[in-house]
Design brief:
With 348 residues, the chain is α+β, with helices and mostly antiparallel strands. The strands form 3 sheets. A 4-stranded antiparallel β-sheet has the order 3-2-5-6. A 3-stranded mixed β-sheet has the order 4-1-7. The protein has a two-stranded antiparallel ribbon with strand order 8-9. The longest helix has 36 residues. The termini are far apart. It comes from Chondromyces apiculatus DSM 436.
Length: 348
């Protein structure tokens, strides 16, 4: 909310220390040293990041946390630094986004420790102090089907997060569970400060694959003088079956491909411009890579099934595959001047 002035804890003094050290460190970090004569665009980007940082800090001091977080987030995106990341985490904490703030403090600690920055201890202390207040969400899954995917507000969870649970910001969350061939389950939970919430995911019901015959209307009788004869063809039956399996494979491959893209996008939040990732970012990238490989295999197998099914369905019927009534003998009456009789007709 624009202009929000909530404060969630005794942070002014400690954050003043962070902001003061951030000012010096923001200028001291090797930003300009990365700028060469042929990198004027990069120089403008760094200058914009510093201007956004200064504006964000001023808005933070004025208690305009929502606007401050927006400025600091954009500054960090343009030119990541320890000072910006730490102050952004503090801003998220003041907004009440406790899980986001906790992850920001952890990321700031990792960045500072890698750079030998003394603010690593400060960031670690803030994360430890905040941890007991962060809401936690855990899951209990009854009879998990193959391909189960759980999402929180549209963001897919890794198998590790599904097993161990996740931290979440206070407020409502939409939890959805899906699996191929199953009806989706979804529920909304209210996350509260310092509390743990458990979501029980029931066994997902099978999705209906057919339509009741009554809804299709009566089946017309065949226009034939002969008793109903079976027109079933084993080869065509196999063709339809293989084609259906192939179509399902293509659908699964496409779905997994979309999931891999989503996982890759989710990992970008935890990975820097030089492809340096936090442990969570690395895990998300690994899962995206595995999902993409499975999607490729499923898609290829599905296309193969469609091709085989099409050949079986479109290949002309042989003489032996024709319906039995077409080959059966027929007695046809015949009459002429002074005579009467019948002909026995049939196919051989």
């Amino acid at each position: 909310m624009t202009g929000e002035r909530r404060r969630t804890g005794p942070l002014p003094f400690t954050l003043l220390l962070w902001a003061l050290t951030s000012t010096a460190a923001h200028a001291a970090e090797p930003r300009g040293s990365r700028v060469g004569s042929a990198e004027a665009q990069r120089a403008e980007q760094v200058a914009s990041a510093e201007a956004l940082f200064d504006a964000g800090r001023s808005l933070y001091d004025a208690g305009l946390f929502s606007e401050a977080c927006t400025k600091l987030d954009e500054s960090q995106r343009l030119d990541p630094s320890v000072g910006t990341e730490g102050l952004l985490a503090a801003c998220r904490e003041q907004e009440g986004r406790l899980a986001t703030a906790y992850r920001g403090y952890v990321a700031a600690e990792e960045r500072a420790r890698a750079a030998g920055d003394r603010r690593a201890q400060f960031a670690a202390a803030r994360a430890a102090s905040l941890a007991p207040r962060v809401p936690r969400l855990r899951f209990r899954v009854d009879q998990p089907p193959p391909g189960l995917q759980v999402e929180i507000d549209g963001v897919p969870l890794s198998s590790r997060s599904l097993a161990s649970g996740v931290m979440a910001d206070p407020g409502p969350l939409l939890v959805e569970a899906t699996a191929p061939g199953r009806l989706a389950f979804h529920t909304t939970v209210e996350m509260k400060v310092g509390e743990q919430t458990v979501v029980a995911i029931p066994a997902l019901a099978l999705r209906s694959t057919g339509t009741p015959r009554a809804a299709l209307g009566p089946t017309p009788e065949p226009a034939s003088h002969h008793p109903a004869a079976s027109r079933s063809n084993p080869r065509r039956t196999v063709g339809w079956t293989v084609g259906a399996v192939g179509l399902a494979g293509v659908g699964v491959g496409a779905g997994l491909g979309a999931l891999a893209l989503t996982q890759r996008s989710a990992s970008n939040e935890h990975c820097g411009p030089e492809n340096r990732c936090t442990p969570l970012g690395g895990e998300l990238r690994d899962e995206a890579r595995v999902t993409a490989n499975v999607a490729t295999a499923a898609f290829a197998a599905g296309l193969g099934g469609l091709a085989v099914g099409a050949v079986l369905l479109l290949w002309p019927e042989t003489r032996d595959e024709r319906p039995s009534h077409a080959r059966g003998p027929q007695l046809v009456p015949a009459a002429g001047p002074g005579s009467a009789g019948a002909f026995l007709l049939g196919h051989f």
